[in-house]
Amino acid sequence: MTGTQIISKIAKNTKKGFTLVELVVVIAILGILSAIAIPTVISMINSASEAAEEETAHSINEACRNYYTGVLSGIINSTNQGGSTQTNLPGALSTKGTRETAANAATVINACEYAGLVDVVAKIKNNDTTFGYDATGVVMRSANKNAGSITYISSTTKLGDMYT
Prior knowledge:
mainly alpha
């Protein structure tokens, strides 16, 4: 037998494809990689979601403080109410007592409407308990219990209850 004949015979006897052992090894490797990657991806998604909620809580906090201060100072009034639906806003030249009454009666929804936080308004109106405020009036994620006791924000939460 010549070298060409031997190679020809070997070529005829070889089968195409993978063996069962090779397939099992590949599947095992893919399973191990998946077991490592999936928890990492889920953790990253959860972290991003928490960061977004923290940012939203900060935005609500700023909106409430700005709205409360704006009504107290007379900047936000019956002729300059932005997107707020608060009906008892006093006029620009009203007394300090009238402005205080209106500021204390304003709700978180009024503040968020004025700030254009439409998604937050919808969440609050649907009784979402994602956000609350602590004894100092700071708005935070309700999952963040570092500050102790939190009161959930609802559609009737008044700024006066938060800040007085």
